[in-house]
């Protein structure tokens, strides 16, 4: 597992998650910038995400929905607050109604992503032997404990439990 | 839908609360923060034994311990911090799982963008 660290700060309501990948920074940037790649990993298991708009520019918006096991759709939106390719991305992640408009009554999570070269190849631009590594730091900030409760209590929960089970399987293998 | 603790966390909480001394420590700590030495005076057991009970509660994330001068202060963290930690843990699990999928995606020898959509330029990822 390439998870380097994960730090929960229950007072600031932040989760800082650090992982490293065997790919150069430019390559890891693509998994965020390209909606077709993003769709392959964003949604929890059983809830694949489909992005129908993805404007990765400062002030730009993304629109997506996750499709549940029963075919139910959970629409969401992103609002990009910071974009500095290929190293920095920050956005608000919220829920939308059936018309794709932001649902003000629902929690908004702030997510800030930093990509930087990791490991022996300090340039991070891709060594000749392909050994470049990238460190991805993701800071998730929640507005309040109530909103965190609300988020976890929603449909994402099942997916996350399933995810944990899958990880256990992988680790046991 | 109600959020549950993981099985391990639930076990730790129930184990911690299965002992009458520990339940008493927790009740006192909820009302008011307690020093371990003050707690030790209340029970007919050694300081070390009280410390052990406190450690069990601490591991179950039910109380937190803080050093203040020579004193060790015990405080309940039931309502807010433990809950927040648990909830943040749900998102930690989500990110662990996403990390595995990203790894798979990055290891995929096929151009990941070519399967389902018209391709967009990806040259910049390849020096």
Question: Please, could you describe this protein's structure?
Answer:
The complex is a heterodimer of chains A (173) and B (127). With 173 residues, chain A is an alpha+beta fold. Chain A has 4 helices and 8 strands; from the N terminus they run ββααββββββαα. Chain A has a single domain (3-172), classed as Alpha-D-Glucose-1,6-Bisphosphate, Chain A, domain 4 (2-Layer Sandwich). Chain A has helices at 25-33, 35-38, 145-153, 156-172, and strands at 3-9, 14-21, 49-54, 61-67, 73-84, 88-95, 109-118, 133-141. In chain A, strand 1 (3-9) and strand 2 (14-21) form a beta hairpin. Chain A is globular and about 45 Å long. Residues 121-128 and 155-168 of chain A have low confidence and may be disordered. Chain B is mainly alpha-helical and 127 residues long. Chain B has a domain at 7-77: Orthogonal Bundle (Arc Repressor Mutant, subunit A). Chain B is 57% helix and 11% strand. Chain B has 5 helices and 3 strands; from the N terminus they run H-H-E-H-H-E-E-H. Classes of the chains: A alpha+beta (173), B mainly alpha (127). Chains A and B meet through strand 1, strand 2, helix 1, helix 3 and helix 4 of A and helix 5 of B.
């Amino acid at each position: 597992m390439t998870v380097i660290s994960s730090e929960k700060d229950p007072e600031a309501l932040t989760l800082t998650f650090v992982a490293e990948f065997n790919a150069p920074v430019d390559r890891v940037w693509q998994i965020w910038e390209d909606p077709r790649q993003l769709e392959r990993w964003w949604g929890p298991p059983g809830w694949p995400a489909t992005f129908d708009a993805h404007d990765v520019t400062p002030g730009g918006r993304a629109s997506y929905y996750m499709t549940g096991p029963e075919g139910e759709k959970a629409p969401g939106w992103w609002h990009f607050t910071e974009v500095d390719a290929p190293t920095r991305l920050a956005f608000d992640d919220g829920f939308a109604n059936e018309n794709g408009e932001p649902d003000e009554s629902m929690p908004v999570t702030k997510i800030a992503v930093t990509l930087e070269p990791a490991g022996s190849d300090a340039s991070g631009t891709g060594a000749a032997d392909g050994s470049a590594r990238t460190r991805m730091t993701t800071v998730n900030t929640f507005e309040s404990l109530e909103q965190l409760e609300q988020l976890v209590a929603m449909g994402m929960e099942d997916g996350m439990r399933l995810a944990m089970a899958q990880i256990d399987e992988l680790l046991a293998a | 839908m109600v959020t549950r603790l993981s099985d391990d966390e639930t076990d730790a909480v129930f184990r911690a609360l299965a002992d009458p001394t520990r339940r008493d420590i927790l009740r006192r700590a909820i009302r008011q923060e307690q020093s371990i030495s003050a707690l030790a005076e209340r029970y007919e057991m050694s300081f070390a034994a009280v410390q052990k009970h406190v450690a069990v509660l601490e591991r179950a994330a039910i109380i937190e311990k803080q050093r203040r001068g020579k004193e060790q202060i015990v405080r309940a963290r039931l309502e807010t911090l433990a809950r927040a930690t648990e909830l943040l843990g749900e998102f930690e699990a989500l990110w662990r799982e996403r990390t595995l999928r990203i790894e798979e995606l990055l290891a995929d020898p096929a151009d990941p963008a070519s399967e389902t959509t018209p391709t967009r330029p990806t040259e910049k990822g390849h020096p």
